[in-house]
Amino acid sequence: MQFSKKIKKVMLIFPTGKVLKWRFHHCEIPMGLAYLAAVLRDDFEVKVLDGRAKFQRIVPKNSKWEYFGYKPEEIAAQVKAYAPDVVGISCLSSFHFSDVADLFERIKQVDKDIITVTGGTHPTFLADEVMKKHTSIDFIVMGEGEQTFRQLLLNINSEKDYSRMDGLAFRSKGTYQINPKTEYIKNLDELPYPAFDLFPLDFYEKKSIPFSVTSRSKKTIPILTSRGCASNCIFCASKNYWGNRYRMRSAENVLDEIEYVVKNYGAREIQFIDDNLTLDKNRACKIFQGLIDRKLDIHWNTPNGVAVWTLDEKMLKLMKASGCYELTVAFESGAQEVLTDIIKKPLDLEYARKMVNKMKELGIQVHSFFISGFPGETKEQIKRSFAFAKTMDLDSAWFFVANPTPGSELYDICKKEGYINDDFSFENIEYTLSHIKNKEFTPKEMEKLVIKQFSDYNLGQMVKHPIRFLKKYLGLIISHPIMSLRTVLADILFYVGK
Fold it and tell me: What does pTM read for this prediction?
């Protein structure tokens, strides 16, 4: 490609929020862009726009989706006003991609010479399809993007060849080339702290619906201490995205960042968003002990889940003492053979039960995830999974439908065995909707089963433990009464309509 001028200004965009109609509009700092901005701003002027960061609900007619934040034309207007040389748009999940593609079309209409770059799971795993169908996208930075994105822009400015760059898809002479991702950052401590100061922190505080949906403090900051996961769960593409390896920041580096956000941004709660915070027990305990020794006096939780098999009583006590108020346990299934033989998750349910009981003894809230509808899973196994959830007396539980996401082993299985319809689109994936054909149930039956369990379980918790229920959700209900009511009604109508 030929470029008409030197790159000086870069604009990074997270797309407008998107959910099923009437569902919660959560909004947190997009960490991928925060890291990219931190790496780029030493060499370029960087502006960040979180498309969700506006109090505006957008409800298209005849659509199952609703949007929140900036309208596409408002984002295009901000691009025009800033006049960047490069626009990068994050595509965190597949159901955002149609909107991301639309934004790139609008940006090229603003100025056809703006260099357009995307990244995230969908364009990484479906690079060929994206480059073939969407000519308004000039580059895809695949997988971990900090080094590749920065080096690409530097190479363009110095007119150096980028055709052999690792993990890069690009257009050339009427066609396109895709270079596989093989190289990853060896020392994560070398990365600068995320550029939190470029984001509307006051908005996130007012919105107060972070990654975990509920929180103890409105001044919440996400922290990522590691990348990747050592497990091989078939539904998850994370291990492939991060290069099938697990890499960690040092405990000291993590603690320094936490101390920095506490002192500079007034953070009162930390949300560890790792896929596996505690895989290295020694490092994890150093982090928890460091929170105590530095007297940071914060609350913290793990909304993305914690690997139960890495926990023990000693670690849980240290977690509690360091400010942990909630752990999310991703059981996925309450049937051991489903976990072992189908999902391939290294979780022993009896050990998990023991650890959860210890969490409860220590006063740590337990949130949980369950997934149903895998190929080969029976109705009897799903019923046992739901029954297991009830015996655990969890503080809260979310129930999801298995979906064949790009980059996951589950998608490969479903495609090979013919478990998905010919008209299936990744862009329709949402975790209360089913896209897998099973011998035991239809997709509609699966959706109804899961939403009924979600409603029954959490309504049961509200009746059995009203004080505990309100302790978790009262702040959310008070801050967002209309949205809370809409979400409850949406679940009821969804179930009745099925």
Answer: 0.95
